[in-house]
Amino acid sequence: MAFVNLKSKVIQVKIVYYGPGRGGKTTNLEYIYQKFRQRINSEMVTVKTHGDRTLFFDFLPFDIGLINGYNIKIQLYTVPGQVKYNATRRLVLRGVDGVVFVADAMTVRREKNIQSLENLQENLTSYKKGLNTLPWVLQYNKIDLREQGIPLLPVDVLEGDLNREFHAPHFPASAVKGTNVVATLKKIISMTIASIKKEFL
Amino acid sequence: MSYALDQKQLDRIEEILKTDLIDNGVRCVFLIDMAGNIITNLDNGEKQHDIYSLAALAAGNFGAVSAMAKIIGESEFSLLFHKGKKENIHFNKISAEFLLITIFGNDISLGFLRLKVSESVEQLKRIMESLMSAHA
Ligand SMILES: Nc1nc2c(ncn2[C@@H]2O[C@H](COP(=O)(O)OP(=O)(O)OP(=O)(O)O)[C@@H](O)[C@H]2O)c(=O)[nH]1
Ligand SMILES: [Mg+2]
Q: Do B11 and A61 touch (CB under 8 A)?
C-alpha cells in the first residue's frame, strides 16, 4: 500500500522478493546493493540466523528519482523462504505493492517452487490481494549452474508449473553473477509505478 | 492500492507531534503505517537516524509482538517499550494501520511520556479518521 505524501511530494513503494528457501532472494538484494551503492545512502538491513538464512527480512531502500514531480522511494524487502517461518513471511507482505517471485531453477527444487507460490497466494488472500491484480514478475534463478552440469528445469516447465494462469513477465537469471537482476528490478518497478499511477497520479 | 495525506493534514499532524512531544523533550518521533511507510517524522535536531530502516524494523517488530499476543490469547500488549542505557523507544498503536514511535532519553520519565503520547494519539485519531475508515 503505497503512501503518497502530498506535502513533501514523496511516494513510498513496497516491493517484496518472495520464493522458496535458498532460492536467491537475499542474493538479489546484495547484488543491487553493491551495484547501486552510490545511490543508496543507508546500510542494507538484514535480520538473519547465523547460517545466513533470512530469519525475518532484508530491507533495502532505493531512490529512483522524480516521476511526474514525485520523488519515488522504493523499499525492497525479502521474506524468509523456509516453510516454518510463515508467520513472519506474512508480516513482511503487509501493504505490498509489487512482488518478485524468485524461483530456483534447479530440477530438485521443482516442488518447493510450486509450494512457495501457493503459499504466496494464500498469504496475499489474507490481505485481500491476489496475483491476478497485484503487479508481479517471476525470476528463474541460478541459470549459471548449467555450466557446472547441474540439472536445471527448462523455462517451459517452469512456466507451466508457475505462470500458466498468469502470464507474468519472467526472467532467467543468476543472482550471484548479476545476470538479469537489474532487468527484473526495473520491470517490477515500472509495473508497480504504472499501477500506482493509474490509481493516483 | 495507495493512499495520500495532503499538506494541511500533514501540517496539523506535525504541529501536534511538535507541541506534545518534541517540545516536551522527546528526541525523535515517527508516525508510520504497518507496511513500514513513514508518514511523518520529526526530531529535535540533535541526531539523525536511518529513518527508513527504523520504520521497516519497527513495523516488523510491532507486527511480531502482536502476533505473539494473539498466540497466547491476548488481544494486544498495551505497553511496548525498549529500554537502553541512554536511549529508549516506545511504540503506541493508533489504529489497526498506524503506529506512533518515540525515541527519548532518561531525562523524561516513562509515565510522563506515555501521558503525552496518549494525548497526541487522541488528536491524531481525529485527523486520520477518514484514512482509517478507508482501510477498515
Ligand atoms: N549458483 C548460484 N547460486 C546462487 C544464486 N543465487 C543464490 N545462490 C546461492 O544460494 C544460496 C542461498 O541464497 P540466498 O540469497 O541466501 O537465498 P534466500 O532465497 O534469501 O534464502 P532464505 O533466506 O532462506 O529464504 C547462497 O549460497 C547463494 O550464494 C545463483 O544465481 N547461482
Ligand atoms: Mg534470504
A: no
Q: Is A141 in the pocket of ligand 1 (CB under 6 A)?
A: yes
CB atoms within 10 A of CB A43: 12
B132–chain A Cβ distance below 8 A for any pair: no
Query: Scanning the structure block, which residue is given the C-alpha cell 515500472?
Result: A190
Cβ separation of B37 and A199 shorter than 8 Å?
A: no
Return the biggest CA–CA distance within chain B.
42
Angle (CA) A115-A103-A114 rounded to 5° is 20
Note the pTM of the prediction, 2 decimals.
0.93
Can you tell me which atom of ligand 1 is nearest the CA of A177? Answer: 31
**Fold (CATH) for A3-199:** Rossmann fold (3.40.50)
Separation CA B32–CA B94 (nearest Å) = 10
| CATH of segment(s) B7-135 | 3.30.450.30
| Structural domain spans, chain B | 7-135
Q: Is the Cβ pair B35, A61 closer than 8 Å?
A: no
Q: Walk along chain A (201 residues) and give the pLDDT tens digit of each residue.
A: 899 999 999 999 999 999 999 999 999 999 999 999 988 888 899 888 767 889 889 999 999 999 989 999 999 999 999 999 999 999 999 999 999 999 999 999 999 999 999 999 999 999 999 999 999 999 999 999 999 999 999 999 999 999 999 999 999 999 999 999 999 999 999 999 999 988 876
Domain ranges (residues) in chain A: 3-199
